[in-house]
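Appendix B. One record, verbatim.
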Amino acid sequence: MEVLNSQRIRLVTLFCALVAGVVSLHSMSVLSALTTVAFYVLLIWNAIIDAYTKTLLVWVTNTAIVIALLHSVWLYHSDFTTWGSSLLWGLLICVPLILSSLLTGGRMLGVGDVRLLIALVCWHGTHILDALVIAIVAAGVVSLVGLVIRRLDRHATIPFGPYLVGGSWITSVSKDFVSLAQSVI
């Protein structure tokens, strides 16, 4: 895969992940900031691969799930209210999507996208709706523009992974950036 060997893509991936880590350093510990960088390096790299190949690498997504779970354990310890809310959101969002993916043979949403969404639910917990709304709106706008300028036809498919990762990154960075700005004011 030529995408994996691109120096520019590696630098963009690392830069975006470092931005998320540095911004999160204000409100979290160094260990949490490091897990943020590792999480977003994996996700952004996988999103770029998805944009080129329409395939999410299973081992990358599974590693991101493990990192997200460890990060959540570090942040929430035994706060069962947070864990319960996250589990409920995960079930409400992911179960119907995985069923629709399996029933349609992946034509509407691939299983890899649902697996990626599981990683994001583990990472964001109850804030997953913020990331999901951003992803859906961004994908819709790009699709609509593609249809209007005739770069896409109505049967075209677009990879949804980059939009999920972008929505997640925007949610993480904006939440931490607002927290940082409020502490300065």
